[in-house]
Specification:
single chain; alpha/beta; eleven-stranded mixed sheet; 14 helices; binds NADP nicotinamide-adenine-dinucleotide phosphate
């Protein structure tokens, strides 16, 4: 070996932490060959020392305090796998970077909220900060943007960024069951947390999108600029109607750079059945990027779980071991731009709307008059189960229009006497 051993301190021994330890133990010689040096865990930290974790840990020094481990002379590189936007995880990362030690983390919440400050701290201390595992698990999405596509001006990056939501939507489609029912199953199977709100309300995907946006467009990370809407309101009937119209429902994260600025949005979308994203099912994730020279590329794989996430963590560790770590956001911090945010109200696109109305003469005339007054033109209409005086679902799709016009129209439609529930809207993405 040409260089000294790289000693890792692993903070957090949960799903990902144990996966990383396992991978490092199983592939120790392969990793040494690829990085040109031994890469070994020497220290670990978690809350409960007594917990059986299914991997041998006796040869590593145990730290009750992950922060003390980060500053220990026995550790050259800190792997943060505790999680959480602030608290101990942030403290551990800050202490390691301040001590000039490289950090690898899978913590999307931490990077989405504090990425700029942490990358600046890393740069000031000539320490690498890497977080491949924070976005789309085992898919090398960040490396692809930062390295594989580094010769391109990128104007769009989007994808399926949350496996829990994709699993729920795929299962709703396959089984015709409602959201709450499928969510309960996903929790039993371990695909959804006991508190699933981060996943199903789009927050987790928004964290990942904010990171992708920064790397793709060379701008400062701005989590607050991401519009996030989850999948709670998608019904089994929306999924059926979407299929009839030639679409599949997916929760997408989309970042688009236009002349006026940057649009960052996470919400359920109708994607054409013929699009490659429609075929990405279950817990799988996919990321697409469009560059001016490369055109569109797509990468797909497992977006979470011990193995795929450990794979991404160890790839970052290897880059650092080789001395090949790139700047956290692809360029020096001072060169990242602050690009204007395009608010959701200015989004332009096509829409799917589902109305639940009383079937009586004149209702559709009222609805179409409201749409006409907002300059919204219809593309298609579906109506099922006509029975005068009874509730009926009406599904409409529109040509391209502005979000604010659409929201005004839905507000008015909701106030019609014949409206039985608030209209449901899903945006159509022509991917
Ligand atoms: N799970 C995935 O598939 C996945 C995928 C991509 C990214 N990530 C990210 O990876 C990170 C870890 O996720 P995970 O699923 O592995 O979480 P997890 O299973 O909940 O594990 C968290 C670990 O942190 C330890 N911990 C908690 N507080 C601590 C403290 N104060 N000091 C030291 N250790 C502490 C816990 O200790 P005890 O075990 O003793 O309680 C546990 O070992 C998160 O940022 C997550 O967003 C996870």
């Amino acid at each position: 070996m040409s260089q000294s051993t790289l000693r890792l301190g692993i903070a957090g021994l949960g799903t990902v932490g144990v996966g990383v330890v396992k991978l490092l133990q199983q592939h120790a010689s392969l990793i040494a060959l690829r990085s040109g040096r031994e890469v070994v865990p020497t220290a670990v930290s978690a809350r409960d020392r007594k917990r059986e974790r299914g991997v041998p840990l006796e040869s590593y020094r145990w730290f009750d305090s992950a922060a003390a481990m980060a500053e220990s002379d026995e550790v050259d590189l800190v792997v943060e796998l505790i999680g959480g936007e602030g608290g101990v995880a942030k403290d551990v990362v800050e202490r390691a970077l301040a001590a000039g030690k490289p950090v690898v983390t899978a913590n999307k919440a931490l990077i989405a909220h504090h990425g700029t400050a942490l990358a600046t701290l890393a740069e000031a201390n000539a320490a690498a900060l890497a977080f491949e595992a924070a976005v789309a698990g085992g898919i090398p999405a960040l490396k692809t943007l930062r390295e594989g596509l580094s010769g391109n001006a990128i104007d769009r990056v989007h994808g399926i960024l949350n496996g829990t939501c994709n699993y729920i939507l795929s299962t709703m489609r396959e089984t015709h069951r409602e959201f709450a029912d499928v969510l309960a199953d996903a929790q039993d199977l371990g695909y959804a947390e006991a508190d699933p709100s981060f996943d199903i309300d789009g927050v987790d995907a928004a964290h990942k999108l904010a990171i992708l946006t920064s790397l793709a467009f060379g701008c400062e990370i701005d989590f607050d600029a991401v519009y996030a809407e989850g999948i709670r309101n998608v019904s089994a009937s929306d999924i059926v109607y979407a299929e009839e119209l030639g679409y599949r429902v997916k929760l997408l994260g989309i970042a688009q750079r236009n002349d006026g600025g940057v649009e960052q949005r996470v919400h359920p979308c109708l994607v054409p059945l013929s699009s490659p994203l429609a075929q990405v099912e279950g817990v799988f994730n996919a990321v697409l990027a469009h560059g001016d020279f490369v055109d569109t590329i797509m990468i797909e794989g497992r977006g979470a779980g011990a193995g795929p996430t450990a794979s991404a963590v160890v790839a970052d560790v290897l880059d650092i071991a080789r001395g090949a770590a790139a700047p956290a956001f692809g360029m020096p911090q001072a060169r990242l731009r602050s690009l204007p945010t395009l608010p959701m109200s200015r989004h332009e696109g096509c829409y799917y709307i589902r109305l639940q109305v009383v079937d009586r003469p004149g209702v559709m005339a009222d609805v179409t008059a409201i749409l006409r007054d907002e300059a919204i033109s219809l593309e298609a209409m579906l109506q099922r189960g006509r029975a005068p005086g009874e509730p009926v679902a009406v599904v409409l799709t529109t040509h391209e229009t502005r979000e604010d016009s659409m929201q005004r129209a839905l507000e008015q439609i909701a106030h019609l006497d014949a409206s039985l529930e608030p209209p449901r809207l899903i945006r159509i993405e022509p991917i």
